[in-house]
Amino acid sequence: MAFNFVHGFVEIWSASVRFMTAPDSLQQNVISWFKGVGAEVPDEQNLIELEPIAINYKDLEIYLGPSLSADNQDGLEIGAIVGLNIADSDEDSDLDEYPELRDQLRNACTPGIAIDVTVSEGVDIWVVMQLNVISTPEEISESLVRYIDTALQCRDLVERAINPPTIIEPDLNRSAIDEIRELVGVDEIVRKVEELKASYELSLLRRNEGLKADFDIPHLVFTGNPGTGKTTVANKIGLLFKEIGLLPSGHLVDARRKDLVASYVGQTAPKTERVIAKAIGGILFIDEAYSLAEGWGDGRQSFGDECITTLLTQMENRKGEFVVIVAGYPEKMNYFLDSNPGLRSRFDQTWNFRDYSDDELLQILKIRAVKEDYVVSPECDPVLLEMFSSMERNSHFGNARTARNVLQAMRRKLAVRVVSKKLIDRESLMTLLPEDIEPPVSLVKRRTIGFTGNPGMGGYL
After folding, report:
1. 8-39 tens-digit pLDDT
2. Comparing 167-353 with 358-443, is the CATH topology the same?
3. Helix-strand-coil percent breakdown of the chain, rounded to 5?
4. Would you say the pTM of this structure is higher than 0.70?
């Protein structure tokens, strides 16, 4: 989208201004400033041809070119794209879906900096500042610092409004240990949680007696296949640490690679730092963490490397302020931990979440049914157990998710049966029967025989 936008921007630029360029001193001062702060700046660009210079800095897409302002014809214009990525239509109606965001963006802009709305495949926010030709290097530096701060603030406002991180608050009405004990098939995990709590309580007793009592908040590795309760337990760990006073909030920020890794070199670190900032006081849970190490071992530097390095730095610099839990398939998590020399030493324990047995899957399904005001008839038990036993248990098996999917399929069959037979009594509306069971075809072991658009420019806000 940014590529299309820039080309549309250049077309408008070409139609609006003569072939002119700001004096070399102004252009070079701006470029030198960006190079001095570590921005990614192309070596050769030609403003005379009206091609904006593309600069990557702090996860911002910045473009530098001749000013479009009639009051600043010999100056420069600098703009940063902050993508909204909402459906293409009239820009006012799109942005009006976020009225608070419109006001927040307007308030974020100080004198000399404006917000423009551009419609392409979605909606872009274009943060614009004019640089005057008579500006001194000191004035340029001060203006650029203020401009970058404004653009970053606008980007954060957009991210929070359009794509907020998944944050799970702990249920303060229940004990973390009690909630984990109620989970199905996690006896070994319960033991580890109890050990963790007991270790902290021991450190308090030893401290009261004047003994050495070191207790560092542990960072954890969760290994297991999908649907084995890793996210649920991570959330309860946050609650536990809040209960015993190790973390002030105990909330959980659920992050994936897309939330941490950017598209350009130098942009991943600030993006990762922003997610970490949201996790301070609680848990940063990174599922499928092995995806951060993609490309490791082939001699190439990847954006995931930058994320891992930033994560390790923040775990050390902000020690005790938050907990990191990384999760994924057992074999792939070993690959992840080997991808950086500092990873294994940063994580104190590895907890393995095993696959559920057929009986446990049945139990999970029944518990879920009760929560949704359904009753699974006893006649369903042998049919469900046989169905679960027939399912192929590979790395793609969903465990508890599979049980939930089976229940949803049963509810749909119940709906058809009840409506077609005009059953309206309470028992009929609640009771799931064997005839409502339909196994997911893709998970059943198969018996085999033989061998196996152009953008436009909007107005300022």
Report:
1. 343 333 333 333 444 567 888 888 898 888 88
2. no
3. 50, 15, 35
4. no
What digits encode the pLDDT tens for the residues 355-394? Answer: 999 999 999 999 999 999 999 999 999 999 999 999 988 8
Given this model, what pLDDT does residue 123 score? 60
- What mean pLDDT comes out for the span 47-54? 64
Average pLDDT over residues 208-233: 92
> Rounded to whole angstroms, how far apart are CA atoms 432 and 368?
13
For 117-144, b/e burial (b = at least 16 CB within 10 A) is bbbbebbbbbbbbbbbeebeeeebbebb
- 409, 432 Cβ separation under 8 angstroms: no
**CATH no. for 2-162:** 3.30.1460.10
CATH ID of 167-353, from 1.20.1290.10, 3.20.20.140, 3.40.50.150, 3.40.50.300: 3.40.50.300
| Helix residue spans in 163-253 (DSSP H) | 176-181, 187-208, 230-243
By the 8 A CB rule, do 437 and 265 touch? no
- The tokens describing 317, both together, are 């610099």
* 401-406 long-range Cβ contacts below 8 angstroms, 24+ apart: 401/226, 401/227, 402/227, 402/361, 402/440, 402/443, 403/356, 403/361, 403/362, 403/364, 403/365, 403/368, 404/364, 404/365, 404/368, 405/440, 406/365, 406/437, 406/439, 406/440
Tokens of 251: 């909330």
